[in-house]
Amino acid sequence: MPNVNSFSLYDCKSCSLFWYKNGIINKSKCLTSLLVDELKARLAAQEVELKQKNEDADKLIRVVGVETEKVSREKAIADEEEQKVALITQEVEQKQKDCEEDLAKAEPALEAAQAALNTLNKKNLTELRSFGSPPSAVSNVTAAVMVLMAPGGKIPKDRSWKAAKAAMARVDGFLDSLIKFDKENIHENCLKALQPYLQDPKFKPEFVTTKSLAAAGLCSWVVNMVRFHAVFCEVQPKRQALSRANAELAAAQDKLASIKAKIARLNENLRKLTAKFEKATSDKLKCQQEAEATACTIALANRLVGGLASENVRWAEAVKNFKQQQSTLCGDVLLITAFISYLGYFTKKYRQELLDGIWKPYLHQLKVPIPVTPSLDPLTMLTDDADVAAWQNEGLPADRMSTENATILTNCERWPLMVDPQLQGIKWIKTKYGEDLRVIRIGQKGYLDTMERALAAGELVLIENLEESMDPVLGPLLGRETIKKGRYIKIGDKECDFNPAFRLILHTKLANPHFQPELQAQCTLINFTVTRDGLEDQLLAAVVNMERPDLEELKSNLTKQQNGFKITLKTLEDNLLSRLSSASGNFLGDTALVENLEITKQTAAEIEEKVQESKVTETKINEAREHYRPAAARASLLYFIMSDLHAIHPMYQFSLKAFSVVFQKAIERAPPDESLPQRLLNLIDSITFSVFQYTTRGLFECDKLTYTAQVTFQILLMSKEINTVELDFLLRYPAQTRVTSPVEFLSNHSWGGIKALSSMEEFRNLDRDIEGSAKRWKKFVESECPEKEKFPQEWKNKSALQRLCILRAVRPDRMSYAVRDFVEEKLGSKYVAGRSLDFATTFEESGPATPVFFILSPGVDPLKDVEKQGKKLGYTFNNRNFHNVSLGQGQEVVAEQALDLAAKEGHWVILQNIHLVAKWLSSLEKKLEQHSEGSHQDFRVFISAEPAPSPESHIIPQGILENSIKITSEAPTGMHANLHKALDNFNQDTLEMCTRENEFKSILFALCYFHAAVAERRKFGPQGWNRSYPFNTGDLTISVNVLYNYLEASTKVPYDDLRYLFGEIMYGGHITDDWDRRLCKTYLEEFIKPEMLEGEFLLAPGFPLPGNLDYNGYHQYIDDALPPESPYLYGLHPNAEIGFLTQTSEKLFRTMLEMQPRDTSVGEGGVGTRDETVKALLEEMLEKLMDEFNIAELMAKVEERTPYAVVAFQECERMNILTSEIKRSLKELDLGLKGELTMTSDMENLQNALFLDTVPESWIKRAYPSTASLGTWFADLLTRIKELEAWTGDFSLPSTVWLAGFFNPQSFLTAIMQSTARKNKWPLDKMTLQCDVTKKNREDFASPPREGAYVHGLFMEGARWDAQAGIIAEARLKELTPAMPVIFIKAIPADKQDIRSTYRCPVYKTRQRGPTYVWTFNLKTRENPSKWVLAGVALLLQI
Questions:
Q1: Residue 1123: helix, strand or coil by DSSP?
Q2: Does position 624 have pLDDT exceeding 90, yes or no?
Q3: pLDDT for 1404
Q4: If DSSP codes are grouped into helix, strand and coil, which group holds residue 1433?
Q5: What's the CA gap between 144 and 219, in Å, rounded?
Q6: Please, what is the angle between helix 1134-1155 and helix 1241-1252, to 10°?
Q7: Alpha-carbon gap, residue 1027 to 1074, rounded angstroms
Q8: How many CA atoms lie within 13 A of 1026 on its CB side?
Q9: Beta-bridge partner residues of 712
């Protein structure tokens, strides 16, 4: 997956260049004085036009005034007429109302008549006609109808029924005439003629109904018609009056309408005139505005031209650069994408080297070169000052590395994975994103739910504190394995919505994590590990903040202000360029653009002024701050030395957070002083000593000097007080090989060192001076403490380091003491005093978030101090606020409950032996981290664990170790302390419990001495014990119990039984090596035997077994009678201590060499850079290495494959395997260093080994055991090859065989037996080797013996061979491994072997002994062999 889209980056940068050019060139071309002249001409024309328009507008104003007056007069007339019409209308409305009211009265009669008519129809009228002689009431009704309907008022005379019937002959017509009857115009005659009928009481519809329904309807019609007519006659005059009024109203309205029409015509005319006037006015205003705008534009143009005058120069230069950049844009983008994709995990040096030293030259030397900007800085293309300023304001450290990291993080397309052991990166991330950030941890409750919600919402998620293995559930998310067209992603079995806006940041606080390759491919690894320069700046800010808070606050505000200036200027310039770029047409009228430019210029000027002021202030602040830089530099140096200690032991883990607390407290503790230089010295001393104390209390005794020396040398290197080349010699000791010492008091190895020193300018003629003044130098070299003595001649005037270099060559055994004296001289005696801090003092530094971690040593219980302190402060088991949990056997749950309760209530918790619960440790780490915040302030945790036997088996989590105060508790050293400690396991009651008091006390004291001897003998390394055994006080106490039981049960002391039980079971149960078992048995044979009760019995020279004393008497006896500490107390020769001290010194310097910063290169005249050193050594080795043996050719030479020939073939085959691997690996590394092969971890390991002068691991696997440095080992290898070449020349046995030159010396010794067995036809399993030590050296032999072989090249350790007497003798002082004469080895039948007065001496390949065992040689001795057993006497093939 690509880490950054190079095409989008290329497009983005191309657009930026195009936009910038458009925004600057195209627009700025228009800004010329010609354009301003054109605008002035246009303004003059506009002014003439404006004058004409003003005159036209004035004329129109006069015409409009006349017309308006006319309209006003006509409108007054119209208003008068309108009032008249209103009065008439009112009158008409009143009359109409009266008429309508009167008519409303007639309406019921009309309706009743209509209702009566409705009752009539053809049927009932026909029925009425059918009456032959109707009742009078009916005939009266018909007569009345005939009268009422008489046309023209001519009343018919015949109103009989017959006439009525005739009138109703046509029923339909009759009915229709009734309906259409003109009720409003009834004739007067008709009304008169009707009166008689109407006055008839029987002329009522109700009555007539009884006679005929149709007649009743006609009756009702007649009555109601008459009634209606009566009312109508009353209303008629009113209606006529209303009609006249309406006519009058219509006439008035017509008159009003004609007046209004006239007004409308006048108004229309006025409107047209007004419109003309308005247009003229508008034109006049428009013209006026255009003139003003033109004038304004001219002014703006002048301002714009003036404003851009200075910018044009800068922008023109920028455009020129951009044009050049266009040609290199492809190459630049390619480099930048590679920068983002691959460089995040590298250190500053390697980033620079890859970018400038490898990638740019590679692109340049291609067949078709890809042009690249020579001085390309990725940051300039990926970010700008404003972004960087914003990041720094958010808490990002201000160093270059941090800025690059932030740039990569914000630009990469893969998920960023921050390697952030000091937690500086995560602090910045949390500040930067604030509440928008979702912070989770793998395994925390509900973390997948949080992730699911964030995926759907497109939020930013930070997974913090990752371990090396990831939860497989998150695999699809890390690989962005989306499904369903990218809309979903699987988390476990669930398909979750995937919002493209979702972002993920991963974080680990592991310093050197080993992630799976697929995770590294899915993520962009970014190395946020703090750099020395970066930390120095941070610590400088901290020290100034405490010493001069006013200064630091001013500096901080100034930095923020300047960062703000950068952001403001960037924003203003972007806005201006954006406006220039997007402006279209005549953009000179864009007032906002010009104002923006002026604001930009003004702000820029103000900012520039403030920047200048700030620079002056900043210079003053920086000058004041710089006074404190030495203190910050010292602290930064100390932190990095401290953080490198994990290379010595994985328990030595320290966090920056804890270091910062120590640093601040050191500043507070520093003695005040008014003199700044003195105050600074006080600060540096306080910081150095506080960090020293904090660190050393957590170091094992054997590592304290290493740390102290490293601090001293690095401090002196930083202050340039010592020479790097001299330090390199001291640590590396590149002694010349194959040299012979001309003086007897220096070994060849020592003389090789002297010769190497003499080749350096400062040590010229050292070898000659030693040879010339051998007597004085011998006295110096053989003095007891040469480091305290004055050096001979002018060499006493050399610097302390130069004297150390000389001493390293002549007395390597005294280097530990010499380095301690060097530290004391340079730093002060308090750094070598060795006083341990009181636990109460350490406790004060602990807290809920800072546990106390005890690194255990055998036989030490540091938790007693915790219980004592707890008792003092009221924390005890009885008070139920002190919890002691011993881990193992399912105690994890108990421990977690205790921690939860204690965190809540403020109790103390002891967690013992946490190394026994490896699987629970990650849970413990999370639990401690959880309780580190929000817990009771009195909550404390005390942890104890044993260190792992090897770095590979180390299991204690880094988080626990980093946040803890580490304390090492080691058993006291030396026979005196160990003997007291052994006796401390008993008391007076123990001494009195046995009835056989004298025997019991004597053997008990001897057992205590035995226990102290076997325990402390370990310090002498392989000469003490072949392997290290965990002897403990339990062995001693059980042995004493066994002693008591046996003495009580036996009449005689069963010495053999006791020795067997102690030596084979109690102590022997630990022992796995047969030679160590012999040593243990010999100790017991010497210490526990009948003679111990018979007079004076010496446990050691000068230390007799005490008599019958009480308990305190024995302790007093130890104080009074025990001789000073010496190897004699253990049966060893004083040389054993010299050897032990030499090995200690070698280890000290080897460790320090490995701890030297790897990326530092020395100055002029130095030892060269790391790669140069390795390359030179590599080429030298390849040149010296010989061709492999041709096995087939060699086999063809041999007529008979004798046992010796078989051994030679085997050795050649093994040598071929070794040399082919050496050549292969060296050639591979050579290609890797040239860049032709990818460097692998094996190649890196080989490179480190070559640089550190150690034999590479892949060579060791195929080689023979050796303790030599690489230089010595390689010289030895070439010698072995020459020996093999000489032997395989004719396959005749050499006159003397170099036994050490074999891969497998046993095969040669076996071959001796095989040859003899074949020759004499003896059974091989019944044979043994007999060793006779000759009095001759190798050179004295010209041919091999007839049987067996002469062997040379053996050395004796622990004693020497007395060639004259032919026996083992006491070693001479300082002769650690004297060479043996040639030994004649022959095979004899086992039953003929004479082992009287012999010492069974083991033969080992190297001083490591143990697994390098070869054979056992029986060597003659006059002394008791037990003396040589206790002295650890052995023969060595290599030294």
A1: coil
A2: no
A3: 97
A4: coil
A5: 8
A6: 130
A7: 11
A8: 24
A9: none
More confidently predicted of 1046 and 1030: 1046
Q: Is the pLDDT of residue 883 over 80?
A: yes
CB 1355 within 8 A of CB 1377: yes
Q: Inter-axis angle of helices 1270-1290 and 1170-1184, to 10 degrees?
A: 10
Give the Cα separation of 608 and 431 in Å (integer): 30
Cα 917 to chain centroid, rounded: 28
Structure tokens belonging to residue 461: 């998620």
Residue 1124 CB: number of other CB atoms within 10 A? 10
**The residue type at 1222:** I
Q: Whole-angstrom Cα distance, residue 1212 to residue 259?
A: 142
Coil, strand, or helix at residue 1350?
Answer: strand
Q: What is the mean pLDDT of the chain?
A: 86
Asked whether the beta carbons of 71 and 263 are under 8 A apart, the reply is yes
Q: Tokens for 1138?
A: 């010299």
* Per-residue tokens: 441: 């941890």
Cβ–Cβ under 8 Å, residues 861 and 946: no
Contact predicate 957/510, CB 8 Å: no
Q: What are the residues whose beta carbons fall under 8 Å from the beta carbon of 721, sequence distance 6 or more?
A: none
Helical pair 892-905 and 921-931, crossing angle rounded to 10 deg: 10
What whole-number distance in Å separates Cα of residue 309 and Cα of residue 307? 6
Is the Cα torsion angle 1116, 1117, 1118, 1121 positive or negative in sign?
Answer: positive
CB atoms within 10 A of CB 1001: 22
Please report how the helices 591-626 and 213-342 are oriented relative to each other, as an axis angle in degrees rounded to 10: 40
- Distance separating alpha carbons of residues 1194 and 804, to the nearest angstrom: 51
Paired tokens of 1406: 């190297």
Query: Which residues, in sequence order, are bridge partners of residue 1415?
Result: 1403
User: What is the full DSSP assignment across 204-270?
Assistant: -HHHHHTT-HHHHHHHHHHHHHHHHHHHHHHHHHHHHHHHHHHHHHHHHHHHHHHHHHHHHHHHHHH
DSSP state of 791: P
The more confident residue out of 297 and 530 is: 530
Task: Compute φ and ψ for 886, nearest 5 degrees.
Answer: -95, 115
Residue pLDDT, tens place only, 497-538: 889 999 999 999 887 788 888 888 889 999 998 888 888 888
pLDDT reported for residue 1436: 96
Does an H or E element contain 521, and which?
helix 517-522
Neighbours of 494 (CB within 10 A): 11
Residue 60, both tokens: 């129109």
Secondary structure of 913-966 in the HEC alphabet? CHHHCHHHHHHHHHHHHHHCCCCCCCCEEEEEECCCCCHHHCCCCHHHHHHCEE
Q: What are phi and psi of 782, to 5 degrees?
A: -90, 5
pLDDT band at residue 741 using 50, 70 and 90 as cut-offs: very high
SS3 content of the chain, % helix, strand, coil (to 5): 65, 10, 30
Find the angle CA(1141)-CA(1146)-CA(1151) to the nearest 5 degrees: 125
468, two tokens: 């090396």
Which of 452, 453, 450 is closest to 494 using CA atoms?
A: 452
Residue for token pair 């912070």: 439
C-alpha torsion sign, points 1183, 1188, 1190, 1194:
positive
Amino acid identity for residue 368 in this structure: V
Q: Looking at residue 141, what is its pLDDT?
A: 86
In the numeric block, which tokens belong to residue 773? 């003044």
The label of the residue with tokens 């086992």 reads 1390
What tokens does 553 get?
Answer: 């606050």
SS3 699: coil
Q: Please tell me the pTM assigned to this model.
A: 0.72
Q: For 1185, phi and psi rounded to 5 degrees?
A: -70, 130
Are 423 and 657 spatial neighbours (Cβ–Cβ below 8 Å)?
Answer: yes
For residue 34 the two structure tokens come to: 């010609």
pLDDT digits (tens, 9 = 90+) for 1062-1080: 999 999 999 999 999 999 9
pLDDT at 21 over 50: no
Task: Give the total residue count for the chain.
Answer: 1439
